[in-house]
């Protein structure tokens, strides 16, 4: 996180639950020094809510796994309660592509209702379809993968035609609601030998209206 963008994270950093998570972390460090078991749960939980995906990424074989979603919505509601009791602060929801689950916003709600900070990791292809629901979801942040400065590179890596255009459309739709009316929007690039030469162009050409906004 760049210091000049610190204020954009104020909803997360200045929340009471974040302060509590820091206290829990300090207690766990003290317990470890005394060779005692931890007194609280982890700071963060990462959940892959589905292995289904609408991309065929070169760097990920998740889409080749069995398509079953695993845990049910009721399972996630029990898990959210357990995370709350353990003092978990942040939950990252990913996949596969989590927006392929019809109940993904109910899963998100299971955690946000306890005041946890929830991040959604998405390949962005369905963001244009769900922009309004993302805005109203009480997510703390949405992290979108965009793996090239050009459509050709991104789509070669992601194995999905027309993906670049839809991802950019979804980003602009969500960014268009304004910073106070939507989750923090983050765009990330997974570096590989296919796109490393585009890194400077990627950062230079990033539209400041949505890049890391």
Structure report:
With 213 residues, the protein is α/β, with parallel strands linked by helices. The chain has one domain: Alpha-Beta Barrel (TIM Barrel). The protein contains eight helices and five strands; from the N terminus they run ααβαβαβαβααβα. The chain has helices at 10-13, 16-33, 73-86, 104-112, 127-136, 151-158, 163-175, 199-205, and strands spanning 44-48, 90-94, 117-122, 141-145, 184-188. The protein has a five-stranded parallel sheet with strand order 1-2-3-4-5, covered by helices on one side. It is globular. The protein starts with 9 loop residues before the first helix and ends in an 8-residue tail after the last helix. The relative contact order is 0.13. The model is unreliable at 207-213 (pLDDT under 50).
Write the topology of this structure:
Blueprint: H1 10-13, H2 16-33, E1 44-48, H3 73-86, E2 90-94, H4 104-112, E3 117-122, H5 127-136, E4 141-145, H6 151-158, H7 163-175, E5 184-188, H8 199-205
Parallel strand pairs: 1-2, 2-3, 3-4, 4-5
Sheet with the most strands: spatial strand order: 1-2-3-4-5
Return the CATH class: Alpha Beta
Q: Would you give the CATH topology?
A: TIM Barrel
Q: Give the count of structural domains.
A: 1
Indicate the low-confidence ranges by residue numbers.
207-213
Q: Provide a count of the helices.
A: 8
Please identify, by name, the CATH architecture. Answer: Alpha-Beta Barrel
Q: Roughly how many Å is the radius of gyration? A: 18 Å
Q: Label the structural class.
A: alpha/beta
Distance between the termini: 12 Å
Q: Name the CATH superfamily assignment.
A: Aldolase class I
Q: Provide the residue-averaged pLDDT.
A: 85
Instruction: Please tally the β strands and state the result.
Output: 5
**What is the string of helix and strand elements?**
HHEHEHEHEHHEH
Biggest beta sheet attributes? 5 strands, parallel
